[in-house]
Specification:
Oligomer: single chain
Structural class: alpha/beta
Strand order of the largest sheet: 6-5-4-3-2-1-7-8-9
Number of helices: 14
Radius of gyration: 20 Å
Largest sheet: 9 strands, mixed
Amino acid sequence: MLSQPLYKTFQRYRTLRSHTIRTLPIAILMPHSACNCQCVMCDIWKGNRNLKQLTEEDIQNVLVTLKKLGTVQVVMSGGEALLNPNFFKFCEILKREKIEVTLLSTGVTLARNADRIYSWVHDVIISLDGDPETHDRIRNIPNAFAKLRDGVKALKEIDPNYKVTGRSVIHRLNYKVWPKLIETAQEMGLDQVSFLPADVSSHAFNREVLWAEPRQHEILIMQDELPELQKIIDEIILKYKNGSNNFIAESALKLQNIHDYYGAFYGLNDFPFKKCNAPWVSTVIEADGTVRPCFFHEAMGNIHSESLEHILNSDKSISWRKHLDMDENETCRKCVCYLNLPPGMNPIG
């Protein structure tokens, strides 16, 4: 008889080969549709008046499938997940079933929730946009950085070893302060920081209408700015990617890919190659119950009308995964946020 870890690995291989989800290591939930920031590169906050949120009943219903498919990590995304008044109840329900919770947060309300976050959340990933001045300008709310800094400080005062990492979107409005961003992350006491380019071409982040070219170029790094971006990346790689320094999560190649991603918009190179298996190892459940194979692809169903398991393994979903060619699919080619979880790897470190 196979041990439990070997059985799960075997099931992950079967999923990749058959396109039927037999195990689901990760689920991304959006407990609340609204956001407490007004970021220039995101439209989520523009839908704040049209509030939607997951309920305890939704979590209990989804949990049936998560338990059956051996989910070990739930990532709470948004919007801002902490805006849901039942957020910590959700965490309690999941933790009772030995499912760890990772919180993606703007950081604005971390300080007031620090004790409960420490009790119920495995780790926190905060959004960081630059040095304090740049962060506040991009977040577009007063004292965004100060609140974020105080939140990280509060968590670290409870436990210096509690894992808090940063995630930064690099784009036209902050690429020049990228080195200062890294220094700011270190000064705040973050354990690690990661980077990705800005998505400007999908319906993600509450874009009911795709951005027109002028709006895209407010965020896209311009062609004549790419040499400066390259110089900055070279300096970062030289300073941070030698030896055992892993404060920056990405490899030197993935940092270079940020330059090449923007270069592809001007025909200077192809979009960087991405090895991704997100639709086979994870799912996204939005605040209104919509289920997607990842943040960027079209919906496959809704948990308010059918079970999560049925949505994941419907004929439509299986066929979609079977015929998805990531090298040719336009959404995949331009994707900025991808996941590759090999069968033997646990998402929780």
